[in-house]
Amino acid sequence: MSDARPTYPSISEVLHASPGAKALTRLSAVDTVRARIRLSIESGLLSPGTKLPHLEDIAVGLEVSKATARRALEQLVEEDVLVRKRGRYGGTFVAENLPEETGDATAAYHSAASAIRLLIDQRSLMESTIMLAAAQHASEADCHKLEQLTKQSERSRTWYEHHAYDVKFHRHCANMSQLQETDAYLKTYHSLHKYFVPYPMEKIQPRLDEHRELIEAFRTNDSLKAVEITQAHVGVLREEMFIGLTKPQE
Length: 250
What we know:
Elements: H1 11-16, H2 21-25, H3 29-42, H4 55-61, H5 66-78, E1 82-85, E2 91-94, H6 105-111, H7 113-137, H8 140-155, H9 159-177, H10 182-193, H11 205-219, H12 223-235, H13 237-240
Antiparallel strand pairs: 1-2
């Protein structure tokens, strides 16, 4: 009788076993940026005429290098998805009419819908545990730190800028939990980010309100309330990520 321990697939292997998910891994970094910006436009989140932020903000928000972000924008301009305007009020803007996709980058994201839903489920379960433990260990210093990050998110001019503070908020909560499984949670948390698309800041405010509610739960060490807020906070991704958004009518 063998006493060999069974082997289990990694989180990455499980996710990429989902139908369509492997297509995403074959995309270049430039194509992933192109697809995410285009998906935001297709979903009606970036409307025609919207001015894109500075290159640095796009690179930080989408977690890529400036060179990758620059090349992606150049390709989108070449494809007439974006337009460049010169002068005092110039910049890079969403084109008035979105041309048809010429490649398969956005299709790769759509085909990964089941992998995205699996990631949301995993994040909901793991983050609920993280926030429960974080509430048990929360100090006033922790709450002050999270309040500052929330204020910086609210002062952000764009989703790209906000995203950097949002990541810091969730990483600090993870550290507060003092759980040894924190690294596994953060891997799932960041894996979901590759599917995030740029959002208008006015649609971000309800999520920041939930951050403030979470801080109040931490301040009173209310673990059950922290879990309740977290499940709502993560659960809404099923409707607010591009997989849950209805394509705008022509």
